[in-house]
Design goal:
Chain A is built from two helices and no strands. Chain A is mainly α. Chain A has a domain of 31 residues. In chain B, the strands form two sheets. A three-stranded antiparallel beta sheet of chain B has the order 4-1-5. Chain B has a two-stranded antiparallel ribbon with strand order 2-3. The longest helix of chain B has 36 residues. The chains are: A mainly alpha, B mainly alpha. At the A-B interface, helix 1 and helix 2 of A face helix 5, helix 7, helix 8, helix 9 and helix 13 of B.
């Protein structure tokens, strides 16, 4: 049971890293960081980006759920 | 002020953004409290108290991660990998010509640089989480003076799982920050740093009351308020260089003829130098943790670079801050470009010829003003360390009104409020700051 959770966590973790990297970076580099000023958030996101968001949300929920599940399992 | 706040919540657009930001912050804090599966939380809790009193090398880094680092939480690494990656990329831009051309390309190039920063963040996250877990694996290394094992499963598979969880946590943090920038209020990364520091703030303040009593507590609070006021004052300070635009006739219409000014902030670099300097100073200490702690160089580093109250440490910190202040201003502010642009649109500074003399003048003013700003930053950042040296007590090791934390809280707070205000102004003109 534990190993199953661990494998699930491993896979979802890798998926998360991949999905996040697939996003277009909007946080801006250093010049944005603390630089002040309103950053350009013009233009909505494309459909592909929105779908990517949705997938990321789902994977994140699975990831955190299995994280908590494994925690509870190990506590017993 | 309060009515403006109510107004912000009454504006549907802004309310949505504010609530979104608050939600992300809540999620972020939740992840910072959630221990990584496989970590023995009870052992950590019993070990954490003496280790924090000791101070040690992790003080500031633990502050930046909101206490998540030493608890080995899912978000243990916090935003440090992203910051370190940004520093590295920024430094490389100066060194590597290919990156420099990318930067000069404008928006598309910057997007590519951001993407590189993101890749590097993940690489650093893997590296740092491996190092952290490798240290935590050996009893008594992460939390000194405590011999309980912190990790249940020290086998390879358990370790790999933990490393991948922490790496994914860092990726999630990066994404949350970008979500705030995109759909929320303020700059995501700075809001997240702000959250972590503000989260440990009350606890540290209360620690002072517990250890030193009411009198010291009130004095520290008062000193902190004065410091905040002073920091706000300097942050808002700017030198205004007047610019006159010549009148031009294009067709039948008259253009220009206005007079404006270029605002040069005294502290143009913001708090980045402080963050950079402290994360660089953390590297030697980290190296001793990974390497052999009994070798000659490790002992030397531990003697001079792990405690904030040593003069050599303070001096290095100060010099690094001043250096990064100049470095950052040099990167972000380009007098040549500004002078060229002004010339193109018929603008000039009264009394100074357009073109090269303007550029030299701007450079001259900028250098002088940055000198003041850099010294101010260094002095503010040194205040807690000097206080520790003067008071000489170990309990003040985590001085809550530490220079770095105050600078970050005030800087980010001001920035965010200004952004909310500018959005509010699209609807009506009364804002937070007058």
């Amino acid at each position: 049971m534990e190993t199953a959770f661990q494998i699930l966590l491993l896979m979802t973790s890798m998926l998360i890293v991949l999905l996040v990297l697939l996003h277009k970076g909007k946080g801006g580099g250093l010049s944005d960081l603390f630089g002040g000023g309103v950053s350009s958030s013009l233009g909505g996101s494309s459909i592909a980006e929105r779908n990517l968001d949705r997938i990321t949300y789902i994977v994140m929920i699975v990831w955190s759920a299995s994280c908590i599940g494994l925690l509870l399992l190990l506590k017993e | 002020m309060l009515t403006a706040f109510a107004q912000a919540f009454r504006t549907p657009d802004l309310r949505k953004k504010l609530l979104f930001t608050l939600g992300v912050i809540a999620l972020f804090r939740l992840g910072s409290q959630l221990p990584t599966p496989g970590v023995d939380t009870q052992a950590i809790n019993t070990c954490l108290e003496p280790a924090l009193d000791e101070g040690g090398i992790y003080g500031l880094i633990n502050l930046f991660s909101g206490g998540a680092l030493l608890q080995l939480a899912v978000f243990a690494l916090g935003i440090m990998p992203y910051i370190t990656a940004s520093i590295i990329i920024q430094l490389l831009v100066v060194v590597i010509p290919r990156l420099e051309t990318l930067k000069k390309e404008g928006q598309a190039g910057t997007a590519k640089l951001t993407q590189y920063t993101r890749y590097l963040t993940i690489a650093l996250a893997i590296l740092q989480s491996t190092a952290l877990i490798a240290i935590a694996r050996q009893p008594g290394r992460l939390l000194q003076g405590c011999d309980l094992p912190l990790i249940h499963d020290v086998g390879a598979f358990g370790i790999i799982t933990m490393v991948s969880i922490m790496t994914a946590g860092t990726a999630v943090i990066m994404w949350l920050g970008e979500l705030i920038t995109d759909r929320g209020v303020g700059n995501g990364m700075s809001v997240l740093i702000f959250t972590q520091i503000a989260a440990t703030f009350p606890q540290q303040l209360w620690q002072i009351k517990v250890v030193e009593g009411w009198f010291v507590f009130i004095v520290v609070c008062g000193a902190g308020l004065v410091l905040v006021a002073a920091v706000v004052f300097v942050e808002q300070a700017q030198r205004r260089i007047p610019v006159q635009y010549a009148k031009r006739m294009i067709g039948r219409r008259m253009y220009g003829g206005t007079s404006t000014y270029i605002p040069l902030k005294v502290n143009q670099a913001g708090i980045i130098p402080v963050i950079f300097a402290s994360s660089l100073l953390y590297l030697p200490a980290l190296a001793t943790q990974i390497g052999d702690p009994t070798s000659q160089w490790a002992i030397w580093i531990q003697k001079y670079f792990t405690r904030g109250d040593h003069p050599i440490y303070m001096l290095t910190f100060f010099v690094l801050i001043v250096f990064f202040a100049f470095f950052y201003v040099a990167i972000t502010f380009n007098p040549t470009e500004l002078a060229d642009n002004m010339k193109k649109y018929g603008g000039f500074i009264p009394g100074i010829r357009a073109g090269r003399p303007t550029e030299e003048y701007l450079d001259y003013v900028l250098n002088r003003i940055t000198t003041a700003g850099a010294i101010y930053l260094g002095v503010i950042a040194l205040i807690p360390m000097v206080a520790i040296g003067v008071l000489g007590s170990s309990a003040t090791q985590q001085f809550p009104f530490g220079g770095a934390s105050i600078l970050i809280i005030v800087g980010v707070g001001l920035d965010t409020v200004k952004q909310i205000q500018s959005q509010l102004q699209q609807r009506n003109y009364e804002g937070f700051l007058r």
